[in-house]
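Researcher: Can you fold this with beta-L-fructofuranose in place?
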Amino acid sequence: MKRVWAFDIGASNGRLMLNAFDGEKMHQEEIYRFSNQPVYVTGNYYWDILNIFTEMKKAMQISIQKGYNKVESMGIDTWGVDFGLLSNTGELLANPYSYRNTKNAEGMERVLEKISSAELFARTGVETASINTIFQLYGIKQYYPELLDKADTLLLTPNLLAYLFSGEKNNEFTISSTTQLLAAGEMKWEKLILEVLEIPADLLAPIKKTLTIVGETLPSINNELQMDPVKVINVAGHDTACAVAALPLEDDQSVFMSCGTWVLIGVPVDYPVTTSDAYDWGFTNEATIDGKYRLQKNNMGMWLLQQCRVIWEREGISTDFEKENMLFQKSASFRSFINPDDSRFFSPENMVKEIQVYCQETAQPVPETRGEIIRCILESLAMKYCWVIKRLEKLTGKRVTRIHMGGGAIRNTNLCQLTADATNREVVAGPVEASSIGNAIGQWIALGEIQNIQEARKIVKHSFSVKHYHPAAQLEWKEAYQRFVHYVE
Ligand code: LFR
């Protein structure tokens, strides 16, 4: 049985999953999981990239100690948009910034003085959002130009990590599509935008196709870990592209929801959809594992709850899903709603307070207890997902019959049930480990073990179980939705 290492690194934790394929089924075992949080220091949010690298090597060591020392290859997927800068001698120039950095908004303002948001969308197919690489990069140009002057190569996070293991420099297609610097529908950087922003086009390492073997682990790594060289594969570097690859979507009436810190909702399309409705409703087009696109909307996900937990833990309250579920069940429904994507929730100092102030300002009952806060968050999220799916139906002209939810956040069964209720659609939840399975799929295809994504989806269906959620009675949901919409439109 052949084995591969799938590193799936998210914005709250990273993990190494060992994946095996016996010719019929895929098998997965979690080897190691580690926390990954942005670090706030000197007025900026950074990623501790060397700690991530160290944790990844530790994970490999654990795998080897468990007797899994013969692996064919490794692949790395991460969250989107962030990057590291290298000098012309290949050294990492600084800690990569996190997309939560407040200075990005400034970068965005400056760019929009030069190119309109509508033009950016038309040229790249990507929604204007302050987190995007383009704005971060322009922000650095404004407030830390010396860094850019020194920079020779920009590598996006999964390729930066792959570089530390293999020495190979390239930017894989799916992760490149999150930058808003890629020409819509093409596999090349949008030169005109780079020119207008006076960013040298050759700063961005060349784009490489997904599903290619890019190299192998460096001798220094092999020596340190006492292992044979392992192939390094360009899987879909973007975690969302990996997750979508692993969801058993059956027809064009199924939508995907990749659920974690963010929740990405959309459908696969052959070519970017850049209509005015898509633009007005904040949809975006990012790349899929098979060189096509995902027409999707990026939404707030578990970040709201994760940040409330930080506050509760600070107050000495320990919390887990079981406890939260009990509190949720006991609290009354539809008391107060927030617009989960309001910018005030992006990086607030105190998420609990921020939610309370929002409710106060909008003249709704203020959620006081933990149960009330959790209910306000989960119901508002589900309502927002319903809003998105209604618009997705308008964009594609197809009625959505089924929602495929995957990713860590589907462990929150309330989120899945509320999504079914709010949308009045069947929800098929699973697999939880969609991203790392999609990562392994990329490796199996590159290694020639699986032919294509269609075959891979069939194998996933046989290998991992899913859970079905059916919508509850609709009347009160419909009424509540009318109230909710008021806060998003
Ligand atoms: C999800 C994700 C989203 C992207 C966000 C920030 O983990 O990759 O697709 O919008 O992180 O990069």
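Model: Folded with beta-L-fructofuranose in place. Residues 10-11, 79-81, 99, 131, 238-240, 260-262, 264, 298 surround beta-L-fructofuranose (CB under 6 Å).
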